[in-house]
Design goal:
This protein is an alpha/beta fold. It contains 11 helices and 9 strands. The longest helix has 17 residues, at 64-80. The structure holds adenosine-5-diphosphoribose.
């Protein structure tokens, strides 16, 4: 481990004690090392798909098969890959710190698959579907679907239970995310370009409420300007190192 990273991780661990309230915000960069394309940047999903075409409420009404083409492909990619060491490290942090919550913008369920149990899904879950007529949702791991769009037993189209562009987030999830943010002693932001609101409000909201803000990203982002510690690197490499240091610090 290089000297700069060691120093950054050591100063990070100074802010952790057993009672610390830790809130973690993750973005697509968290799953990049699982082989899941991020949304922006080279090779991102929005290079291949036009979000207006296949990730808006209007697209779901007008072109449900088009929405499902992208979504069914994403589910197939998710089914072929798995959580990476970064996800497992965060699940271990939940075991070390009882006051820890993950707020994720990702819809891949990888935090839960890796063992995290306290996860707020700001943008929904790719494996959950919702009936467009009955407005009820459930997990459905059918992949690929034999026919698109998939239908509910009632005959109506199913939709992905994710938040499309210009759609409202789930009010309860949003309120919980704000609550966990303002209570945080340490707010870790991992793998997000920090361009999509309301998730992008959270780091500054945490900082304004007294949290130590720690940013982990492979590229410099705007968050770095006001983060207390900004670590340039890959989540799947850095997080296991952080967990190892914390276990050493607490003698576990
Ligand atoms: N480790 C850490 N960070 C990484 C890694 C990695 N291995 N690989 C990429 N990154 C960083 C990139 O530098 C970038 O800043 O992850 C970020 C990914 O940014 P986006 O692709 O914009 O994803 P995200 O910030 O999660 O997008 C937010 O936008 O399209 C919507 O709903 C979608 O939830 C998504 C939201």
């Amino acid at each position: 481990m290089n000297k700069e990273l060691r120093a950054q991780l050591e100063s990070t661990t100074q802010h952790f004690k057993p009672s610390t309230k830790i809130t973690i915000l993750t973005g697509a960069g968290m799953s990049a090392e699982s082989g899941i394309p991020t949304f922006r940047g080279k090779g991102g999903l929005w290079e291949k798909y036009d979000p207006e075409e296949c990730a808006t409420a209007e697209a779901m009404r007008e072109r449900p098969w088009r929405v499902w083409e992208m979504h069914d492909e994403l589910r197939q990619v998710l089914a072929r890959h798995k959580p990476n060491p970064g996800h497992f490290a965060i699940a271990q942090l939940e075991e070390l710190f009882e006051n820890l919550v993950v707020i994720t913008q990702n819809v891949d369920n990888y935090h839960q698959d890796a063992g995290s149990t306290r996860v707020l899904e700001m943008h929904g879950n790719a494996w959950r579907v919702r009936c467009t007529a009955e407005d009820r949702s459930w997990m459905d791991k059918t992949v690929p679907y034999p026919k698109l769009p998939p239908k509910c037993q009632c005959g109506a189209d199913l939709r992905p239970d994710v938040v499309f562009f210009n759609e409202q987030l789930d009010r309860d999830v949003l309120n919980s995310a704000f609550g966990e943010t303002v209570k945080a002693d340490v707010f870790l932001v991992i793998g997000t370009s920090y361009v999509v609101v309301p998730a992008a409000y959270l780091p500054l909201m945490a900082k304004e409420n007294g949290a130590v803000l720690i940013n982990i990203n492979t590229e410099p982002t705007d968050i770095a300007a006001f983060a207390d510690i900004s670590i340039l690197g890959r989540a799947g490499e850095i997080l296991p190192k952080l967990v190892k240091m914390l276990k050493g610090k607490f003698g576990i």
